[in-house]
Amino acid sequence: MSVTPSRVAIFGAGYVGLVTGACLADLGHSVVIRDVLADRIEALKRGEIPIYEPGLAELIAANAERIAFTTDVREAIDGADFVYVAVGTPPTYSGDADLSAVWNVIDELPAIDRACVVVMKSTVPVGTGSKVRHRLDERGLVQVGYASNPEFTAEGTAVADFLRPDRIVVGAFREEDGDAVVALHAGIESPVVRCDVASAEMIKLAANAALMTRISFINEIANVCEATGADVVRVAEGIGLDRRIGPSFLRAGIGFGGSCFPKDSLALKQLAANSGYHFQLLNAVIEVNELQKRRVIGKLHRHLGSLRDRRVALLGLAFKPDTDDTREAPSIVLAGRLLAEGAEVRAWDPIVDGHDLYGVEIAASPAAAAAGADAVVIVTEWPELIDVDWASVGASMRTPVLIDGRNLLDPVLIRAAGFQYEGIGRAAGPPED
Ligand code: NAD
Ligand code: UGA
To answer: Ligand 1 — pocket residues by CB below 6 A?
Structure first.
């Protein structure tokens, strides 16, 4: 399908805004990305990409003539056919989504005298679209359309996820606004789900909740495996081959983190509660996840007794590999718990700087983090950890204990390298013959 180039203004130069802008430019559209952070915009103008997302820098460079960056609202909006909202929606104290950045964007919009559609990419509670519609109408912007087009990309694979999505969801109040948003994606092959705005908003929250439920489910199965001698890796393989279940999101570990799952679980929980519904299953998913992070501390206690003055190496700070994002990362909870128990914490990550982690010493390599330590914990499954010379790392430690929080390593090889190895949901010792 040939593309009719549009002018797209994107508010928010974060993970979603930059990926959306780069991908829409790659489809042939002309994009202006606006952020309130002057330093960020200046860096982007110099060609520096402020986040680590594989393939993003290359895509922005390849489409440089169709992408501009600005802090100026009018410059962004000038001639725009679409205004994308891709700002953060972090949790407030109550767990509700903080929509202040979304409202800032809507309230900053100048008078627009041409056909234009505001497209909500940020994850927002059900009902937000109706409120935005009302606010636009109040301001006399009745000709400005509104569509919800939630984002399903995952960090680390965001560019591929955007250009080859499982589906594109578009909810609109007016048919023609939805049609325009769908047409903007010409060139991407994907099923399209057209629906009302509230349903589009709920699809986003429900999709994340379904993925989190699978993770907490497999983590609980892992905990029962530990108590009964089964191996969760084989169990996940065995259940995942059932086509009705499928293999994705069945990796047991030390719980989900990131900028989205934790906040979106709270936002959906609060949305339900505010509407008078107690979302029991979601509450359990959240609680299981909190306990899962802390189970690592119990494992360390079993091997080392008191953790006071013990040195623990945390390998990986990002909430998952291929990102520099540490928002709600299990590493932060673990570091905090370990320091509170009186342990010394040394950490390594190939991308995250980590120097802002209070009380944690940052090491340049996994071996440097582990030298002299009483235990190593694999927090993030960075692939480079597979190739570490574990025998020499173990020899350099005070006690060679390895807690593999992501079931990354082969227990047989690691035990052969001299370690006391414990994964998540795997038999505690060598299998009995
Ligand atoms: P982010 O924090 O990385 O980026 C948000 C950006 O918006 C920041 O640079 C901030 O300075 C900017 N901003 C704030 N107010 C602004 C304004 N008035 N005008 C212009 N820019 C402004 O956030 P993110 O991770 O990109 O997430 C954005 C939204 O997308 C959230 O609602 C999130 O839940 C959702 N989402 C994120 C992902 C992801 O992978 N990170 C995936 C799907 C959905
Ligand atoms: C997630 C969703 O996968 C995206 O579809 C969604 O768009 C995004 O949230 C969002 O709304 O922002 P993301 O948080 O980037 O993407 O990363 P995931 O790959 O989903 O991982 C989230 C967390 O779950 C990580 O901490 C990861 O380690 C954990 N996880 C994931 C597991 O513990 N087990 C698994 O099997 C899968």
So the answer is: 11-17, 34-37, 40, 86-89, 101, 104-105, 121-123, 151, 153, 155, 259-260
What is the structure's pLDDT at 4? 81
Secondary structure string (H, E, C) spanning 342-398: CCEEEEECCCCCCCCCCCEEECCCHHHHHCCCCEEEECCCCHHHHHCCHHHHHHCCC
State the number of CA atoms in the 13 A half-sphere of 78 facing the CB: 8
What is the fold of 7-195? Rossmann fold (3.40.50)
Assign 279 to helix, strand or coil: coil
Q: Does residue 218 contact residue 192 with C-beta atoms inside 8 Å?
A: no
The preferred substitution site among 122, 202, 211, 293 for testing ligand 2, maximizing ligand atoms within 8 Å of CB, is 211
CB 168 within 8 A of CB 189: no
Residues forming CATH 3.40.50.720 domain(s) in the chain: 7-195, 210-422
Indicate whether residue 258 lines ligand 2 (CB < 6 A): yes
295/314 Cα distance (integer angstroms): 15
For residue 61, give every residue at least 6 positions away whose Cβ sits within 8 Å of its Cβ, in sequence order, or none: 47
Q: Tell me: the pLDDT tens digits for 107-144?
A: 999 998 888 999 999 999 999 999 999 999 999 999 99
Residues in the chain with pLDDT values less than 50 = 1, 431-433
**214: three-class secondary structure by DSSP:** helix
Burial (CB count within 10 angstroms: exposed 0-12, middle 13-18, buried 19+), residue 242: exposed
Ligand nearest to the CA of 252: 2
Question: CA-CA distance, 316 to 348, in Å (whole number)?
Answer: 6
pLDDT of residue 2: 58
Ligand 1 pocket: which of 10, 16, 320 to mutate (most atoms within 8 A of CB)? 16
The dihedral through the CA atoms of 238, 242, 243, 249 has a sign that is: negative
CATH, domain 210-422, list 1.10.1040.50, 3.40.50.720, 3.90.870.10, 3.40.630.30: 3.40.50.720
Name the pTM for this structure.
0.95
- Strand, helix or coil at 413? helix
Q: In what order do the strands lie in the sheet with 375-378?
A: 360-362, 344-348, 311-315, 375-378, 401-404, 420-422
Which positions are annotated as active-site residues?
260
Rg (CA), the chain: 24
pLDDT of residue 60: 98
Give the pLDDT confidence score for residue 429 in this predicted structure.
60
* Edge-to-edge strand list for the sheet holding 67-70: 67-70, 30-34, 7-11, 82-85, 116-120, 144-148, 168-172, 192-195
